[in-house]
Amino acid sequence: MPDLTTDVRYIKGVGEQRAKALEKLGIHTLKDLISYFPRAYDDRRSYKKISDLEDGETACVEAMVASTPTLSRIRKGLELVKLRAVDETGALDVTFFNQAYMKDNLHPGETYTFFGKAEVSGRRRTMASPVVEREGSRLVTGRIMPIYRLTAGVSQLTMVKCMEQGLSACQKLLPDPLPESVRQEHHLCRIGYAYEQIHFPSGDEELALARRRLVFEELFLLAIGIKRLRGRREEVTCPPWQNTDLSDFTASLSFTLTNAQQRAIDDIRADLTSGRVMNRLIQGDVGSGKTMVAAAALLCAVRSGKQAALMAPTEILAEQHYKGLAPLLEKLGVTCALLTGAMGAKARRAVLSGLETGAIQVAIGTHALITADVTYRDLGLVVTDEQHRFGVAQRSALAAKGDRPHLLVMSATPIPRTLALMIYGDLDVSIINELPPGRQKIDTFAVPGSYHQRIYKFLEKEISAGRQAYIVCSMVEENDQIPDDRKAASEYAQMLQREVFPHLTIACVHGRMKPKEKEKVMSSFASGQIHILVSTTVIEVGVDVPNATVMVIEDADRFGLSQLHQLRGRVGRGQYKSYCILISDNRTDDARTRLEAMKKTGDGFKIAEADLQLRGPGDFFGHRQHGLPDLKVADLSCDMTLLKEAQSAAEQLLSRDPDLISCPETAARVEEMFSANENTLN
Ligand code: ADP
Ligand code: MG
Q1: 144-147 and 40-43 strand pairing
Q2: Rounded Cα gap, residues 158 and 18, in angstroms
Q3: What is the whole-number distance in angstroms between the Cα of residue 254 and the centre of ligand 1?
């Protein structure tokens, strides 16, 4: 009697050979097998009489083989089997290419079901390489067929057969990870039914029911796992910080904090005084003023007698933060220092010793902050900016320099809230969904490539008024297979220099440059020595050049909305009116909808929602840093409603039964789902 852990090789009809092939698909046990869901379906339910077949139509035909199949070799390597099949309405000429065995498999006088695409020309009806089986067998015709992702040595048919065996072997064995009460309350079908129907749906509604249940299950387990992780993290205690009064800080600013900034700061102060270690993500659109929130946190640390460190992904960003924050903090009596890899040995030694003695209270820098020779007297708070640029390892390396320091992560990628809760796992999230008042709207235009000359004229005008511009072109290093030479950043820059702007200074940055070279170009752009910076998307990270007023994006349709939004956020950072010009010759509906969305709104969160709907979560989930378990059936962009439902079900269950005593199967599955991700969650 098999159970779910039984090796697939012992399942009837599988055997050694196939088991080996299945292994390549990650299928080892019976459980793996039945959890290998189809990637698509082929609806083969439509039956037609031969005379009713229309040209181009895909259908099943039940017909008798009326001629002995013939085999001919058309040319080397191309074998053709031909036969004629008939039903009471007409004749169908069937051909098979390079399937010589069909000659002996199909017998005159026998009736078969042929499924394929019909071609009709005049009175002649043909079908090339149809799927065939004996009439009435209904294994690969006459039903909705699952389509599996395959590997060498496993055909669709083999997969279907293995799956049927697998399912019938474990129908009664499947334990349900959903508690019965949850299943009933949310009108979800039973697990056995769901597995059967997801593989072999008897109809569209049945498939929808099965899918809904499996998606819910997955999201429910995910939500439980995340909430439990958060629970675990909260148990890390530390003495509550005493002095988080910031009234002198707010008073010293030349502006009033926005409500959203204030809320984020309040969240942070509540964390710091709670007696638990803070793990908080600050999410805010570009320009929403995250740095001030970080500054408030840094100050709290100093006020509580601790040191704090702020880590940025590049030297130029670190310097920008230092220049912005040091005067502000020093005014309040805080000693700050910059620490980057570019510093001379002597300056560096001074900073290191200041950090060790505690004379320096706030360190701002790059990953130079975490190299082995840096020691802190008492590091109580770690802030990382633009977190998606850092691996979890780097963040923990910085945290390891202190004794369970508080952790604050700042991200400029707006993500819809529910999604953020999922992605950032056990981080608490504060959202800054408001820009400081008086920000100018960036005028956004979507134009075809034929506008290039006009755009160049416009650039000329802005530059002669003293401004600077960015031009972004897509895909130099992102897609090595299809290098787009015309627009590769360096060639484009050269072309502009030679043919359009011989009198201007044009430079280029791209992903293949060394970080040092890149930073050098970026800082001469920041200091105004370069008029036009041509780049790939490397400028995405929050570099602040207030004098830049035009962002031109070539082939804008190739970028995700959130990415376009990030790019656009590079301009409009100063007092000058700014523009974003999206160039695209893509006339598809999808491309137009996306560029329209960019024109309509400047709100990063709205754009993120739209992006998620239009493009799916790949943008956010492209890199595996989020550390979530892989989702098999759920699609976080489409299944938003179900996601919310599953989340609230998970919350309810956990508040009733935090240790999942009443549902051991749920607990086991959550454990299993997260076991591979122990250390990857933020
Ligand atoms: P980001 O969230 O993109 O990191 P920054 O922190 O760099 O944004 O802030 C962008 C600009 O807005 C900075 O010049 C900063 O001084 C300014 N700023 C921040 N908060 C406010 C505010 N409440 N009112 C006006 N200006 C602000
Ligand atoms: Mg920033």
Answers
A1: antiparallel
A2: 9
A3: 11
What is the rounded CA–CA span in Å between residue 164 and residue 526? 64
Looking at the DSSP bridge assignments, the partners of residue 283 are: 411, 431
Percent helix, strand, coil in the chain (nearest 5)?
A: 40, 20, 40
516-539 burial, b if ≥16 CB within 10 A, otherwise e?
Answer: eebbbbbbebbeeebbbbbbbbbb
Q: What digits encode the pLDDT tens for the residues 170-210? A: 877 788 999 999 999 999 999 999 999 999 999 999 999 99
In sequence order, the 6+-apart residues with CB closer than 8 A to the CB of 396 are none
Q: Which atom from ligand 1 is nearest to the alpha carbon of 432? A: 2
Q: Which two tokens stand for residue 571?
A: 């301009």
Confidence band of 636 (pLDDT split at 50, 70, 90): low
Paired tokens of 659: 């240790």
Contact predicate 252/331, CB 8 Å: yes
Nearest CA to 63 among 115, 20, 119? Answer: 115
505-537 tens-digit pLDDT: 999 988 777 777 888 888 899 999 999 999 876
Burial category of 410 from C-beta neighbours within 10 Å (exposed 0-12, middle 13-18, buried 19 and up): buried
CA of 524 to the centre of ligand 2 (A): 20
Full-model pTM: 0.64
| Residue 419 pLDDT class (50, 70, 90 cuts) | low
Q: How far is CA 367 from CA 317, 318, 338, 539, in A?
A: 12, 10, 12, 19
Write out pLDDT tens, residues 262-295.
Answer: 999 999 999 999 999 998 989 888 788 999 999 9
Q: Which residues pair with 281 in a beta bridge?
A: 409, 429
Q: Is the pLDDT of residue 214 over 90?
A: yes
Q: What distance in Å separates the CA atoms of residue 16 and residue 9, rounded to the nearest whole number?
A: 5
Give percent above pLDDT 70 in the chain.
88
What is the whole-number distance in angstroms between the Cα of residue 682 and the centre of ligand 1?
Answer: 26
Contact 54, 86 (CB under 8 A): no
Helix H or strand E encompassing 379: strand 379-385
Residue 453: pLDDT band (50, 70, 90) is very high
Ligand 1 mutation target, pool 292, 328, 565, most atoms within 8 A of CB: 292
Residue the block writes with tokens 């017998």: 107
* For ligand 1, mutation pick of 291, 321, 385 (most atoms within 8 Å of CB): 291
Residue nearest to atom 16 of ligand 1 (CA): 289
Q: What is the mean pLDDT of residues 81-107?
A: 93
- Residues 15-58 have pLDDT tens digits of 888 898 899 888 999 999 999 999 889 999 999 999 999 999 99
Angle of helix 561-568 relative to helix 604-615, nearest 10 degrees, comes to 150
Strand intervals (E) in 88-182: 90-97, 111-121, 124-128, 131-134, 144-147
Cβ atoms of 117 and 42 within 8 Å: the answer is no
Q: How many residues does the chain have?
A: 682
Residues with CB under 6 A from ligand 1: 255-258, 261, 284, 286-292, 412, 436, 542
